[in-house]
C-alpha cells in the first residue's frame, strides 16, 4: 500500500528535543496493510497513518529502492529450494515460505527515551533470519521477492568470522613451523 504525503504534523517533543516527522510533503510512502484511519475529505479518500505505520519512502516505482524508516529493514528474500534432498521437484505451493535473506537497506534506527537515534546493529549486506509471519512482502519490477520487517523481527544475523592468520614459529636448527588451529571435536 502506498501514496503521496499531502500534509504532515508538527512532530513531537521528547524531553527537551523537538523530533521532526520522518517524511515530508510530496514524498511517496509505503505503509502497512492495516495502517491508519481512512477519511473522505472534499470527495477524495485519504489515510491518516501514525509514523510507525509508515514502512518507508519510495522515490521510484521499484520496491528495491525503498528507504526504510526508523527500525525497519528491507530484505531481499533468498530463493526457496526447488527440490528435496531426495531429488523430488517441488511446486511453488509446496515450497515452504523462506525466512532468510540479504539486507538491502536499513532505516536510521529507533528513537531513545532522550530523543537520540539508536542505530541498528544490522547492516546492508548482512544475511538475516526473520520471523516467518513478520513484515510486509513486496515483489520488485524484475520479480525479486522483498520483505520489510522491524529489526526486532530478525532472529539472527549471520556474520562471517575470519580468524587471524596462523603464527609462524621458528627453530634454531630447522625450517619454520606453522602453528595450526584445530577444531576440537568430540569423538566419544
TrEMBL record:
Gene3D superfamilies: GroES chaperonin (2.30.33.40). InterPro entries: Chaperonin_GroES, Chaperonin_GroES_sf, Chaprnonin_Cpn10_CS, GroES-like_sf. Keywords: Chaperone. One of its GO terms (cellular component) is mitochondrion. GO terms for molecular function: ATP binding; metal ion binding; protein folding chaperone; protein-folding chaperone binding; unfolded protein binding. Pfam families: Cpn10. The keyword Repeat does not apply. Belongs to the GroES chaperonin family. PANTHER family: 10 KDA HEAT SHOCK PROTEIN, 20 KDA CHAPERONIN, CHLOROPLASTIC. This is 20 kDa chaperonin, chloroplastic.
Amino acid at each position: 500500500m502506498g501514496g503521496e504525503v499531502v500534509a504532515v504534523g508538527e512532530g513531537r517533543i521528547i524531553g527537551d528535543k523537538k523530533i521532526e516527522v520522518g517524511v515530508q510533503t510530496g514524498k511517496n510512502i509505503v505503509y502497512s496493510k492495516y495502517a491508519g484511519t481512512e477519511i473522505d475529505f472534499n470527495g477524495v479518500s485519504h489515510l491518516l497513518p501514525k509514523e510507525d505505520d509508515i514502512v518507508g519512502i519510495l522515490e521510484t516505482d521499484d520496491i528495491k529502492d525503498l528507504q526504510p524508516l526508523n527500525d525497519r529493514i528491507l530484505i531481499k528474500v533468498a530463493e526457496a529450494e526447488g527440490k528435496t534432498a531426495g531429488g523430488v521437484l517441488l511446486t511453488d505451493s509446496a515450497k515452504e515460505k523462506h525466512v532468510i535473506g540479504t539486507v538491502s537497506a536499513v532505516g536510521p534506527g529507533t528513537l531513545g527515551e532522550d530523543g537520540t537515534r539508536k542505530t541498528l546493529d544490522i547492516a546492508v549486506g548482512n544475511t538475516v533470519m526473520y520471523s516467518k509471519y513478520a513484515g510486509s512482502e513486496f515483489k520488485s519490477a524484475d520479480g525479486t521477492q522483498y520483505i520489510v520487517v522491524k529489526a526486532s523481527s530478525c532472529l539472527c544475523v549471520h556474520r562471517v568470522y575470519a580468524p587471524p592468520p596462523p603464527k609462524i614459529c621458528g627453530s634454531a636448527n630447522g625450517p619454520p613451523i606453522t602453528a595450526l588451529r584445530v577444531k576440537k571435536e568430540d569423538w566419544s
